[in-house]
Amino acid sequence: MDFFQDTEIENKKRIKELLLHENFNNGNMKLMFLSNSDNFVHTDLLIKLKSLFQRQLSKMPREYILRQIFDYKHINLLILNNSNVVIAGICYRPFYSRNFFEIVFCAVDLNYQVKGIGSFMMDILKEHVKNEMYNFKNTEQYKFKNQILTSLDFFNKKYENISGNIYFITYADNFAIGYFKKQGFRQNLTFDNWIGFIKDYEGGTIMECNIFWEINYTQKFDILENLRKNFISKIKSTTDIFTVHKNDKPIKELTDIPGIKPEMINNKDIRNKQNCLDGFIQLLMNILKNDPNSWPFLEPVSAKDVPEYYEVIKSPMDLSRIKDKFYKKFYSSLDIFISDVHLMLNNCFKFNGRDTQYYKCAQALFEKFEDKLKFYDELINFWNLKNNKGLQM
């Protein structure tokens, strides 16, 4: 998130979340927490949830999904639309005494994806498990009871940290890793209380998420906005970097830039040029990596999941390879870096059909990349970064 101005991506996320809150408060969406351990179980809704998981998690056996949903030890979060259709859900198992919750299944109906429901649902769950943990610690013989929530006021509570850190643990397949990372999950685990207590899934990647008691995740955008405003206020009180300078003259030298003083310039142009190239490439890498359409390109395509890929694509490329080449000082000019980015995207165009999500992500990322190159065209020309011969050291 850019602390100095609202980004288009953050604004879109905030708008999506506000619309979801509005739909919920208007009765167009419902939230339910259901477990077969409660005598008043809604069997029909759990069957609908099973159907959703079957559609979205096609590799999971139907009988296994059914057993997990109706397991007395498991709880199910369901989101329904105004026609009582289950559009999203999470099946999870609490381990209250060990301070963690296992995410067994998580899915959003295909027609409701890319609308913020996945993030909204996970934020809801993070706040709900705090309530569960709080009740477990303060109630003798605590037993979960089914809940139908008609107001988001339930999540406006503040909790004291009475049990230490809470964690989510899940096994994510390759297609879900990107989603879970956006929800705060990581692959480098620091928590080990789960070992020996959850099922090991072959081919899955174990991930954890630390849930902070002091953060209300259903209000995360308001929290970030307040942090941003406080940060900018402190910066403005100690510096003049926000001063806007007017200039009608062409910029040929650094000293032609309004606000730049001679003593601010390092005259070692060769080193400055190299630093500028490295900094600019790093900026472009971060822009690509942080774009919501970058998820197919973060890691190499798995030969196990897509065995025919490397029969078609003879020169594979992805953002992790590009990052590795950058740190190995491979990019002596901007052209080489641009060539690798184009190779990565062209590979996607070549292997995938136009109607696939992968192709659409590549198209969006290509347009974003080209727009950024145009935006920084003056900088590129000023430092002569686009030079096939590389930097002359």
Short description:
The protein is an alpha+beta fold and 393 residues long.
Provide the domain count.
2
The share of residues in helices is 40-55%
CATH topology of the largest domain: Aminopeptidase
Which structural class do the helices and strands define?
alpha+beta
* Rg on CA atoms, Å: 25 Å
Poorly predicted parts? 388-393
Overall geometry comes to globular
**Secondary-structure element string:** HEHHEEEHEEHEHHHHHHH
Regarding quaternary structure, how should these chains be classified?
Answer: single chain
Strand order of the largest sheet: 5-1-2-3-4-6-7
**What fraction strand?**
5-15%
**Major sheet attributes:** 7 strands, mixed
GO molecular function, one term: histone H3 acetyltransferase activity
Domain N-acetyltransferase: 31-212
Domain Bromo: 289-359
Main location: nucleus
Account of the 3D structure:
The radius of gyration is 25 Å and the shape is globular. Mean pLDDT is 86; it is low at 388-393. It has helices at residues 8-25, 43-56, 62-69, 117-138, 177-182, 220-236, 269-290, 309-312, 319-327, 334-351, 357-375, 377-382; strands spanning 29-34, 75-81, 86-95, 100-108, 147-149, 166-172, 205-211. By secondary structure, it is of the alpha+beta class. The protein has a seven-stranded mixed beta sheet with strand order 5-1-2-3-4-6-7, sandwiched between helices. A hairpin with a 4-residue loop joins strand 2 (75-81) and strand 3. The protein is built from twelve helices and seven strands. Its main location: nucleus. GO terms for molecular function: histone H3 acetyltransferase activity. Its EC number is 2.3.1.48.
